[in-house]
């Protein structure tokens, strides 16, 4: 398992305040277009802010002779092992191949993750016991809900390997960020510079929004021309952020 240098607390705090929309813009400016996990939505909209390092779980299609209910008697079953291995502050990211006929995990396992200090759950599959997730104090993003247990469709095989989640490549240690718009995957090595640039972008956009709300036209304001940028610099007392 790769050992990554720690992400600074200030970077994580900043990522917890900027929007996924802003982050995708900053990532696109750096050539990364496929970072948004399309089709996933927060199960508890009141707990949609998510930031944490990815801890990955990969599933393949289940098989009738192997995926029987008795396998859950094994506490080292990969799904159970993943739940007991996610470090505090990390996000369990599940590759369920975009299949939602059966759940990829349920409320009991999610509650265990909460009590172990996990930052959240992201799956491109479904969850069961969705009513419990609606009040669970753990940000969870999923593609839907299903009553059927995961064994009917998913066979958990690997932990902490590169996966595809909602057609986005997620590597262990990447930074997952979520809000009301959904979830993005931020390559770990870009986290610091993207966080800083995103904060600067949003500071400028708050200024632009105020001008638009006050009646300014788009031309010259959004995107800002040199006169608007100069006004921003005078008003905010900051240098022009990179866009």
Overview of the molecule:
The protein has helices at 9-15, 20-29, 78-83, 107-115, 130-133, 191-213, 226-236, and strands at 41-42, 50-61, 90-95, 103-105, 120-123, 126-127, 140-142, 144-145, 154-159, 163-165, 168-170, 175-179, 182-186. The protein folds into two domains: 33-186, Ribonuclease E inhibitor RraA/RraA-like (Glucose Oxidase, domain 1, 3-Layer(bba) Sandwich), CATH 3.50.30.40; 193-236. The chain is elongated. It has seven helices and 13 strands. Strands 1, 2, 3, 5, 7, 9, 12 and 13 form an eight-stranded mixed β-sheet that branches. It has 243 residues and is α/β, with parallel strands linked by helices.
Strand content: 15-25%
Fraction in helix: 25-40%
Summed over residues and divided by their number, the pLDDT gives a mean of 95
Q: Count the helices. How many?
A: 7
Q: Quote the CATH topology of the largest domain.
A: Glucose Oxidase, domain 1
CATH top level label of the largest domain: Alpha Beta
CATH superfamily of the largest domain: Ribonuclease E inhibitor RraA/RraA-like
Indicate the low-confidence ranges by residue numbers: none
What value does the Rg take, in angstroms?
A: 20 Å
Tell me the number of structural domains.
Answer: 2
